[in-house]
């Protein structure tokens, strides 16, 4: 019985995948439908790579934030990183930069706020 249930589950999965490719619902997957699907897959892969790169950048800016909780970009950690990049900014200036994208008003940027800032 278990084997029959697995076969039905697999069949349903195949039907859902086929329906996803068959955008116009004509029961066939045209060349243009297939191309669009591969484009979406490539775009999804590119987005994953972008998020990975953003996470690495975020870690660099948030390093040594010293907030005691989760990893955040604080005015102090932003000032330190900008200084390493040769850009001298005061802690006040860094606080103003952060405030522009600080959606929750905690005075620091979490990763989601950083993503918004970088988009």
Question: What does this entry look like structurally?
Answer:
By secondary structure, this protein is mostly helical. The protein has a single domain (2-118), classed as Recoverin, domain 1 (Orthogonal Bundle), CATH 1.10.238. It has helices spanning 2-21, 31-62, 75-84, 91-99, 111-118. Helix 2 packs across helix 5 (111-118) and helix 3 (75-84) crosses helix 4. The N and C termini lie far apart (51 Å). The mean pLDDT is 83. It comes from Linum tenue. InterPro entries: EF-hand-dom_pair, EF_Hand_1_Ca_BS, EF_hand_dom, EF_hand_pair_protein_CML-like.
Features:
119 residues, 66% helix, elongated, 0% strand, mainly alpha, Recoverin, domain 1, 5 helices
Distance between the termini: 51 Å
Strand content: under 5%
Order of helices and strands: HHHHH
What would you call the shape?
A: elongated
Sheet with the most strands, sense and barrel status: none
Helix content: 55-70%
CATH H-level name... which superfamily?
Answer: EF-hand
- Helix count equals 5
Cα gyration radius (Å): 23 Å
Q: Flag low-confidence runs.
A: none
Mean pLDDT score? 83
Overall SS class = mainly alpha
The total tally of domains equals 1
SS elements, strand count = 0
Q: Based on the structure given, which CATH architecture is correct?
A: Orthogonal Bundle
CATH topology: Recoverin, domain 1
Query: Which CATH class is shown?
Result: Mainly Alpha
Organism: Linum tenue
GO molecular function: calcium ion binding
Keywords: Calcium, Metal-binding, Repeat
InterPro entries: EF-hand-dom_pair, EF_Hand_1_Ca_BS, EF_hand_dom, EF_hand_pair_protein_CML-like
